[in-house]
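User: Assemble these into one structure.

Assistant: Restating your components, then the assembled model:
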Amino acid sequence: MTEENTEIKYTVHFVPDDVDIFVNPGDNLMEAAVAAGVHINASCGGAGVCGTCNVIIKRGQVESIRTDKISERDYKKGFRQACKSKVMSDLIVEIPATSKLEKAVLSREELLSSCTLASGWKFDPPVKKVYLKLTPPGMEDNTGDLSRLMKGLKQLSGFDKVSVDGDILYGLADILRKDDWNVTVTLLEDSDNSFKLINIEPGDTRAGNYALAFDIGTTAVRGQLLDLNRGRILAQGIDYNRQISYGEDVISRIAWAQKQDGTEKLQKAVVATINDMIKGLVKKANINISDITHFVFAANTVITHLLLGLNPKYLRLSPYVPTANYLPFIKAHRIGIELSDYVYLYSLPSVASYVGGDIVSGILGTGTYQKDKLTLYIDIGTNGEIVLGNKDWMVTAACSAGPTFEGGGIKHGMIATSGAIEGFDVDARTYEPLITTIDDAKPKGICGSGLINIAAKLFEKGVIDQNGKFNKGLLNRRIRESDNGFEYVLAYGTETQTYKDIVLTETDIANMIRSKAAMYAGYRTLLQSVDKKFINLEQVIIAGTFGNHINIENAITIGLLPDIPKNRFLFVGNGSLLGARLSAFSQDLLNDGRKIASMMTNLELSENSLFMDNYVAALFLPHTNGGEFPSVTAGGK
Amino acid sequence: MTEENTEIKYTVHFVPDDVDIFVNPGDNLMEAAVAAGVHINASCGGAGVCGTCNVIIKRGQVESIRTDKISERDYKKGFRQACKSKVMSDLIVEIPATSKLEKAVLSREELLSSCTLASGWKFDPPVKKVYLKLTPPGMEDNTGDLSRLMKGLKQLSGFDKVSVDGDILYGLADILRKDDWNVTVTLLEDSDNSFKLINIEPGDTRAGNYALAFDIGTTAVRGQLLDLNRGRILAQGIDYNRQISYGEDVISRIAWAQKQDGTEKLQKAVVATINDMIKGLVKKANINISDITHFVFAANTVITHLLLGLNPKYLRLSPYVPTANYLPFIKAHRIGIELSDYVYLYSLPSVASYVGGDIVSGILGTGTYQKDKLTLYIDIGTNGEIVLGNKDWMVTAACSAGPTFEGGGIKHGMIATSGAIEGFDVDARTYEPLITTIDDAKPKGICGSGLINIAAKLFEKGVIDQNGKFNKGLLNRRIRESDNGFEYVLAYGTETQTYKDIVLTETDIANMIRSKAAMYAGYRTLLQSVDKKFINLEQVIIAGTFGNHINIENAITIGLLPDIPKNRFLFVGNGSLLGARLSAFSQDLLNDGRKIASMMTNLELSENSLFMDNYVAALFLPHTNGGEFPSVTAGGK
């Protein structure tokens, strides 16, 4: 966006951030802010429904669609929704404090993903609170409490088919009478437009209606607390999945689950992770946990089984059959999640044993299923999952990449939180590093995106060779030999949070190479299965919990991403969490999730010999076949 | 049936019972057997579906509808279904042993009720077992287990709308594989023709599909174990409702429920009663308790609340509102009933606080709602409930009669089980009694029907007067004065099971008079509310758990039943249990139960001054107004 080679460019100046960016006429103002690194809240992701991305146009012209999120008065003052505005001249744009409030809780994924979403949906959460002022009973009309309630509900439009959760009966009589027959009911929508009445409270409690959206990864769990009235993210958190103690990848977890009480222990571990995170989210947002009415999650198929307490053994036995791709209604407390008894789980549906709800969620969240473009969707994670297709067809596969890009199997690896080394370069003469960390905190470890950047630069500068081995001729204080082989010192103990040196070892690099080779072999095999080549790809969407400041060139340099034009790549951060959140915001999108799962064709790579060949060929930097990576091997960077 | 004053009568001789009966041409053979006191199994109640009432026509002609319950070969041998046969000549009919087998477990109600049923329904239990031979998965078809199961089910007709109980997931994978993808699923039908998949078992388990039908009374609980494959009763039992310790009538139970943990204690008491009865039924029938797939019950509204653990307090506060007349799906184990976790409860719907599912059940079972005749349906019990109407309209009321007709509030009262004194007469000169007992066992106490017979005869013979007081001039060894007033000795301790004298006291008679007055005032007020008189009644159906050898004349003598022609009375025994059983046998009838509840108009007697006047006027034997009981006061008996 900063090139100067097109005819007309407008300058957008953001205050109080004091940042300039050049944009094309008609560019979306929200996208301009994102590109400029200026944070504007946009918890609905640009759908225009949350009204949190309000900005003030101090000078210049925008072309803006006005919604009811801005009052007449504010509109006259220059308030506009950034996501609904096009830049039509040079601008000075003020970001009001209210549009910045949530910065602390919004991850960088939000910034990136807000422009790359599923479109055409309406804000209509599957869990609704409805306030009813019932007619009190009298001697002439003393029908039962439940019938009176249902009659009151059915007088509203849209609630023709409502079933009742039996637990509703308990306390019903007192609740109805507590605030003189004024009550709020909570309704859970099903895929056939019917509803289930799941809770009743005295008085008007509509103001408190929150949902949780979770991406439950093999390594990391991310959760968001959502306000279902305003379509906003109130808080979010990340933590390690405590199942890690029972194995780093899904295969080892399946094996562990076969031990005595193994499935139960694995279930308890991930549920404990989730429960602690919920407590944290509730505390951050300062809400009542009893106002959480829904729990949506996306996870790979193995993790989904383990979370539910289902033995995943048949997932790894041919023909690799899950117990259920589409989950029936199950209550959260049934599996130990500490929410109100009435709260149900919704799981993004999975496709196959190794293509889970997380990938369906990503395809949903990014709107890949709505577009004509031939798209490759990549979820870089422990259970690397890929999808190829467009709105008409999709093929999918999973290539077990291992946990390296989430910090696992790396000596000083960590998930992408504060203190993770992410940005990296190395001085070509002194081999001294230049590092940047998340939150500019003291270094603590290396996250997935950092690993890519470090490996690429070390390879570029000749510190490591095509095999990922250190150049032994370069030994200096940074490149040294330890008891366990060669390593590169990224930071000395005096500079780190851990007071210990942070290093990258040759073993780390070898693990990373296996991971990237598995991913690359996965894309290649999937393309070959439908007679396509990398160059046919119109878009490559990269998702994952590995960190977001991934540098495309670096990822190509190490052979993780294919060597195609850079402008075809798009980062969406945690696509899985995005889809989970949208499924909590929109019944339409939730239903789309089911359609996506049913339209995907799964390719089993574990029994595919072509995949094995592709994998072996990719065990070099960038690849055994230099022709696959012309921009790298030509040194033309 | 034994009068000789019509033109043609046929004689039906039953063997091996060696009993004759005269019937009209075209009379139903089953009804003839019932009238003759000959037992033939008819667990479906004459619907022709159970095939248990087979008899052999040894001589003579019947006009018979042949069903698939009789083979070609047996038909030629003279086998016919008694319930489907009309008497067309003098007959000799043999009851084969197979049609007698269940005698031990069939109560006398069954005999009586089998000819007085709802008609036009098909045998189609709401809980079905369906056997599926699924296609095993392969690499080309490795969809999830649950999807495979649902696909297999939907290939059968009639299962388009099936929802899945989330608990199904647990164990699903192993169950499917245990017998090579051959499984039996259990489906629970809902009122809208949709189904809920509630259980899955490996292999073909269709042979074991049993239901429980319970009538849960204030005083007595009756239960039947039903075979859902053959429409048969396998076992039945009766016991006291253990809630009796917390009060004899529903009003005192409601009061008790307001104490600390009161509702919970009352719930536990009745659930314990039910659990013990279930154990007994299962043992008697020698089946696996895990093959019980359904639990249907009928109870009055207060007992229904207490069984579910719902505080009944609003039932006795104006405007007398139940928590729910129509229950949503609730699992049996949710309330402590010890059946498989997947078993759901079905409750016959109630109408109002004091007009419960038991009365709806009786109207259902007797087909009163299908007929043109103006019918008075009376359930003589602790919570005396009455219905007046026909297929077009129904009004209903409850008149708290107290427990006397179920043996409560009577010094030596008991429920109608073995040893209860039921038949009674008294020698006009010596005042010595003539008693008969249930099962001809040694006397143990007095059941409700016995109480009526005893009081009527004592009144007729002048032992007690219009006020129910003993004639003090008659003192002899049978009529004596005790510490608590006068009493009549029915049996001396030397003759009884209890080794104590069994007596009827003046207090007993006073309680009985209050009970019968409440019932009578109830009918009268209900008739007055729709401008009808007793003489307009075309049929009076009498139900209740008070015993069945009730003598109509005796009941009229004491003023319990109105003084109208005897042939308009019909006894159906436990109508509530009958309706519960039929609701387990037929989804159509189950749905009819909901219609019945919705068409009933409830008249609250507790705030009705006319009822009070009628009650006070009825506190005599038979009534203060002799004109109400011409056949009694004329002494014309």
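The radius of gyration of chain A is 26 Å.
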